[in-house]
Amino acid sequence: MTIENLDLVCFSHLRWNFVYQRPQHLLSRFSKVTRLFYIEEPFFEDGPEQCQVTNVDKNIWIIVPQINRGLSEAEVISRQEKLLTDLFAQMNIEKYLFWYYTPMALSFSRSFHPTMIVYDCMDELSAFKFAPQSLKDNEQELIKKADLVFTGGYSLYEAKKDLHPSVYAFPSSIDKEHFSRGRSADIEPTDQSGISQPKIGFYGVIDERLNIELVGAVAAQKPEWNFIIIGPVVKIDPATLPRFHNIHYLGNKSYQDLPSYLAGWNVAIIPFALNESTRYISPTKTPEYLSAGKPVVSTSIRDVVHDYGHTEFVHIADTPEDFIKAISAELVETDRSSWLSRVDDFLQNNSWDNTWNEMVRLINQKLSNKAQENTIHNLNLKENIYV
Fold first, then answer.
1. CB neighbours of 370 closer than 8 A, spacing ≥ 6?
2. How many CB atoms lie within 10 A of CB 305?
3. Could you give the C-alpha distances from 143 to 7, 44, 102, 165, 257, in angstroms and in order?
4. Can you tell me whether residue 109 is helix, strand or coil?
5. CA distance 383 to 220
6. Beta pairing class for 314-316 and 296-298
7. What backbone phi and psi angles, to 5 degrees, belong to 255?
8. Contacts of 330 (CB under 8 A, 6+ apart)
């Protein structure tokens, strides 16, 4: 048996249409060979309890449970389990692989019998703001149940490698063809084109992981620089964001449009705070920025230092003064042809296709091993019957 013989059922804490990142990159590739059912967290509203099923692409169904408000935790879990059972019957899901991004989904899915379980641990969710204590407990159980554990970076790999016999690190990858458009995009988006250079840019979710004080301090000291901040604001009060004439919050943008925004930037930044929420983070934007031909200045995030600290592609800086020094050095650079050539050499084997292919290889290998183990087990049972 191979992955092509199984439906892939994914449980995620991230909305499919929120920000295009690791789950979408990987799972959209799986949908080329099997059906994908992407189970999101429920919406709570009065009315008929049901699953909203949306076919967004060939072989991709987005599932959103709709559950009545005011229920106890045990009742919510029970309703989700029933809705999942109904979905399996409706969509004829019989042989399937469970793929988890959130251990919290284990509470309503543990009674099912998947052929295989994969835990793709892309973040240390227990360290995020408002994370419940039950998340840690569920993760421990999930790791025990999983056949394979993938991690979104080397720091997470170091944290999980001794908890399971089959843990593999898969750091952030890139779609080089897509982001290389940022080197030559002809038309800059209208909401950015009117902003004068130099433009210092960031895109991503704006939450407790972003060092907003650092951004504000640099902007205050360099009023002639313009800072472009792209992304949705979540889990923090927008009123706490620094407000200067040279900081431009452009809101969330589609994945397809990001290269056009990157094209107008002089320098890209990763101003993450150094806290529990970022301890294990492996920012996908690092190779994406580089693929677009943009020099990068980042705080000393462990996986950024591990993957790029030995190169001249990413400047590591943690203070406003060091950020200003690094950005200033890049702003006076006039010829990056040699630098771009070295960037391309460095990133040549970094792609979501390669990551996906290696994951498929590991999954199929594990499926083959499990099939052999089942065959041996069944033969032993027969021998015992006739002894």
1. 115, 116, 147
2. 15
3. 21, 29, 12, 10, 37
4. helix
5. 78
6. parallel
7. -60, -35
8. 266, 267, 295, 297, 315
Q: How far apart are CA 357 and CA 363, in angstroms?
A: 10
Each residue's pLDDT expressed in tens, for the chain with a length of 387 residues: 899 999 999 999 999 999 899 999 999 999 999 999 999 999 999 989 999 999 999 999 999 999 999 999 999 999 999 999 999 999 999 999 999 999 999 999 999 999 999 999 998 877 666 667 888 899 999 999 999 999 999 999 999 999 999 999 999 899 999 999 999 877 899 999 999 999 999 999 999 999 999 999 999 999 999 999 999 999 899 999 999 999 999 999 999 999 999 999 999 999 999 998 899 999 999 999 999 999 999 999 999 998 888 888 899 999 999 999 999 999 999 899 999 999 999 999 999 999 999 999 999 999 999 888 877 756 565 566 555
Pairing of strands 50-57, 60-67: antiparallel
Contact predicate 338/317, CB 8 Å: no
Q: Is the Cβ–Cβ distance between 61 and 38 less than 8 Å? A: yes
Q: Is 375 helix (H, G, I), strand (E, B) or coil?
A: helix
Confirm whether pTM is higher than 0.85.
yes
Between helices 320-331 and 212-221, what is the axis angle to 10°? 60
CA atoms within 13 A on the CB side of 269: 31
Strand partners, 119: 100, 149
Residue type, 196: S
Q: Which of 32, 36, 20, 50 is nearest to 253 (CA)?
A: 20
Backbone φ, ψ for residue 204 (5° rounding)? 150, 180
pLDDT 10s digits, 149-161:
999 999 999 999 9
Domains of the chain, first to last:
3-173+352-383 (3.40.50.2000), 176-347 (3.40.50.2000)
Helix boundaries (H) for the chain: 22-30, 73-90, 106-109, 133-145, 154-160, 176-179, 190-193, 212-221, 258-263, 285-291, 302-308, 320-331, 337-347, 352-386
CA neighbours closer than 13 Å in the CB half-sphere of residue 95: 8
356 to 21, 25, 299, 363: CA distances (angstroms): 14, 9, 29, 10
Token couple for 263 = 């094209």
